[in-house]
Amino acid sequence: MANSDENSSLFLIFILTMLALPLVPYTILRLFRSVTEKKKTIHCRCSECARSGKYRKSIYKRISNFSTCTNLTVLLLWVVMFILVYYIKLLSRESQPFEPFSILGLEPGASETEIKKSYRRLSVLYHPDKNPDPEAHKYFVEFIAKAYQALTDPISRENYEKYGHPDGRQGFQMGIALPQFLLNIDGASGGILLLGIVGICILLPLMIAVIYLSRSSKYTGNYVMHHTLYTYFNCIKPSLAPNKVMEVFIKAQEYMEMPVRRTDEDPLQKLFVAVRSELNLDMKNIRTEQAKFWKQHPPLVKMELLIQAHLTRESLDLPPALLKDYKHMLELAPRLLEELMKMAVLPRNAHGHGWLRPAIGVIELSQNIIQAVPLSARKAVGANSEGSGAFLQLPHFTESTIKKISRKKIRTFQEFREMSVSDRAEVLTQIAGLSPAEAQDVELVLEMIPTVTVEVTCETEGEEGIQEGDVVTMYAWVSVCRANGLTGAHPHAPYFPFQKEENFWLLLADSNANSVWLSQKVSFMDEATAITAASKAIQETKEALGATVKEINLAVREAIEKVKSGSRLIMGKFQAPGEGTYALTSYCLCDAWIGCDTRSNVKLKVMKRSRAGTRSSYALEEGPAAAVAEEGIEEEEEEEEEDLDDYESEYSEDEEEEEKNNKKGKGKVVNGSVNRKGATQSESEGSGED
Questions:
Q1: Cα(166)–Cα(136) distance, rounded to whole angstroms?
Q2: According to the UniProt entry, which residue ranges have a biased composition of type Polar residues (predicted)?
Q3: How crowded is residue 213: how many other Cβ atoms within 10 Å of its Cβ?
Q4: Which of 49, 122, 186, 298 is most buried, most CB within 10 Å of its CB?
Q5: What is the tens place of the pLDDT at every residue in 226-262?
């Protein structure tokens, strides 16, 4: 066996190798990504967003961005690696090979006279009779005497020349990459070795598995609790206004587990007084309503008051403990709203359709939370049928500002956006009373607001027309255009304390039946992924239709160009219903901006079945979920019929008007194909009246 120094160095080399194998390529990958990362500014540059501090690049923030747990771990591992390299190098210097000429301080090939002379000189320094130091004695016996013997004794010299050692052939030495104290199996070291083997080989993997399984059984892939999804699924109803959606939203298990302290009582009482007008309480029986409100589960009361404080922008005076809960609540809100949206569009009937009104309510609530606009701001006021919500998301705008600009007969947000820059600046400075700098902030935000265009086509692949039972494929190109030239961006949201990416939801729905046929989330942030998805979808579709390679390549190039210009391809399949003409509507809803949603009419003509073959089972893929959801649906719909008239969102005001227009034949129909530019509800209404 090798000596202790060799075993120690082997162990250090083993540790160094195990560290370097993952650390070096991971560091190279991180450096490559940081160098190639785009530095283009995609967030709002108005003064309000600058004051919020979300995007401020101060020295402290740069250090905090660097000093993440991952970066600090990588840095620490590199420090450990350098220490190991230095220590291994130090050990290698101490364990030098046996070189008799070097030990005696001679050049190779020195004469016997020079060897004896050098030996006598070193004997004076290291011989035990001359130097009582034990280390000198050891060095003299193990090195100097052996070196002299190897160079003067014929047998020793022959052994040295043949085997590199004066004692002749040495035994084979084998080292173990473990510390020396673990190799002493007797006594306590044996127990340490046994505990190490059991801990590393058995207990550590078992502990990791237990932690992973316990967490995965509690959370979904989107880090939302399974209990939350169960609650959302059972609480959501066919028709929900945004205030009703909020009642479901705050029942998330993540919110229920937030603590309610005794010190929170007084601040919550003050919040209640500040946001009482937004709680939909009956002012005629205010005492009864107030008592009923406070009798709710304490976490529900706390969450509703915190959300209303955010919507009414009354959160500045919160105490530190409550402010921490407030920020945690907002941090969880985007992914909880996304899961609530998925529950709303989840297939709930035998046809595999979700519910439209809850889906619209969830998106409207998301818009209000991101922009910190009260739900009451969506109600129609006078000639303004859209409410003041879209205006309140602009910087420096208040209710008084909106009243001032309404004197210029600016009734809707779309009319305000369509004004020229000079006319708008004149209205803002002379009528609304904003300073030139504040008017410039408004322009910067208006340049960030996207204009959405949707092109929808429904067809049966490889067939002419759509017949009942066919698998219908929907192709939708969703395009985004901004005045500042960006495609993907972070919205203007100075009151939302975290960075938020824009997301759009494309819904193909029957508004009369309150059903969602297809739904898909769309993001404009990752262009590379969108190019890959669009190319693959177009290629597979063309290959199924028997197109040539040239035609396929041309179609793929066109799709790539559309994606690079700011479009995204959305595809979905559904089973054609029975014979008839269906007046569907495509909705493209943004979860961050108020007033930039798009909706357009899509007429689907389904003919009687005449082609041979059996119906596809595509719609039956979601049969189990639909079967589970179908239980109790009829009872819920009967209970909620009374709620249909409680609230009408901006997307349900003109359904009767649309039916009249459809009867007159004014809609543009190409068997489910529509190309419609219209970024707001008012534009859709205007085109219907024309």
A1: 21
A2: 679-690
A3: 10
A4: 49
A5: 999 999 999 998 887 767 899 999 999 999 999 999 9
